Amino acid sequence: MQQTRLDTERIRVARRSIDPLFLDSPLYRCETLEPELGCAVSVKLETANPVRSFKGRGTEVIASELAAGGSRAVVCASAGNLGQALAWSGRGRGLDVTVVASRFAPVAKLDRIRAFGARLELVDGDFDLARDRASEIARRDGIRLVEDSLDIETCEGAATIGLELVESLAKTPFDTVLIALGGGAMATGIGHVMKDLAPGVEVICVQPLGAPAMTYSFHKRQVVTTDSTDTIADGVAGRRPIPAVLDDLLLVADDAVLVREESIIAGMRLLLGHAGLVVEPSAALGVAAILEDRDRFAGRHVVTVVCGSNVDVHAYHRWVG
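Structure (tokenized):
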């Protein structure tokens, strides 16, 4: 495999610094979904942890390093899930955590960031404006800025999901993994491990049609930015891909696809009705991809990573009914 910024041995070491609460998440075949989707489907459930998303894997690595180095202050921008995870990991290690988010982010995510003890600053804009403000705070105060997907710890923390998937292959063989694509930490992390240790597994990234910047960039093989986003999948709604992350993605992903909003909602409904899972829109992207291209996945065994369940209950009822 061509060289990415990630390192498999370093990922194995990072695994040891992550609270076991975030490790060895359930992976199981969900046969009740299969008649609806026309293929064998296994679910990797990254919601059964204190922050209800995969982000805790990366923030555990970062917070451990900061605590060991004597640092006590850190700031990040977040669409909601990273902020919760950094607040949780930082609280356990005595760190002073500031999170910058859009005031239009789901209220449930903002409330949980506060509940975990972080200082929360809201901006009148989207995630990319929050990212600019977090950078400004880090420069002003001379503190550590955590940049999701750019900071290698966020990618290598997420990559531990890939280690667990590879270890499961003997018991649960599969040939495709579907990964939600936003900033790219989870996609590049899992993708790196797959290409290094299980190159026969196809890695497909999935993004909403209303937030297509990284997918456009993947297919054009250069950074493509957009002026705005329009999707209910707030967790993956970025406008400005990070060049270094795109370089990694081009080496480890086989494809990136876009899905419509109605397919995301249909995926959420299927996960609720046939798997008993309440998920946020980003977590339904894999199911949405199968719904939109059943022929591509027919006869295959697909793993979809259910990456988060932090969803506003009122919005969820509006979407799912």
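The chain has a mean pLDDT of 96. The CA atoms of residues 96 and 111 lie 17 Å apart.
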